Amino acid sequence: MADYIEGKRPIIEALRTDVPLRRIFMADNAKRDPLIEDILRKARRREVNVKMVPQSKLDEISVRGSHQGVIAEARRFEYLGVGDLIDAAETYAAEHGGRALIVLLDHITDAGNLGAVIRSAESVGAVGIIIPNKRSAHVDASTYKSSAGAVAHLGIAQTSNIVQAIKRLQENGFWIAAASEHARDQVWDVNLKGKIGLVMGNEADGVSRLVLEKCDLLGKLPMMGKVSSLNVAQASTAFMYEWLRQNRPLGRELSAGDAGK
Q1: pTM
Q2: What pLDDT is attached to residue 82?
Q3: Which CATH superfamily is domain 82-246 in?
Q4: Handedness of CA 113, 205, 132, 110 (dihedral sign)
């Protein structure tokens, strides 16, 4: 199914954040206001085709009924395979003192959370993210926005079975660490050095029992306040930065730019 973006400002934002667009449909009677002119200007710069169509065509395509005379069709995101990420991790680890991070998301369903996790993963220098191909948020136009464009710079793989993906990572020298409120150890007491697969769970239920059973390490974040937990995007950021802290070059602190070096 095609991913459509409706409305003038959402399309301008998509063009600004480099969402890969296939084409833009514009009503042939659309008023040439400043927003429409901005869309046309940005589309020319990005070499995105603008097709003039009758208003009825947009009404037919529209899902939300808020197209304002313009709808963009996003290109389908090209996912990697789990093996592609493993190969990339081997290369990365060889060049970065043996460290590599791959994040596995156990059926998170909110696209905004997915984008936020992608943004943090790219920030710490993770190799990539693995997501299920069913019952899970997937990369769409909103993900580009919530990731602040980081989705274009990080490998993202889909799998039909998270447990099998974990097994493949373990066979290639990864230790699998899961974030779980049931863990005995706090995150900074968990050894996250080297090649780590970090498992983060569903927004409502956390990491599933079957997946937890396959993990080598469990860790939790201490909750010192009155709020019982962080959301998955916030928690994943904390875990990823603890991985980065533990893998900092011996004898000095990480500085800006070191994460990706």
Answers
A1: 0.81
A2: 96
A3: SPOUT methyltransferase, trefoil knot domain (3.40.1280.10)
A4: negative
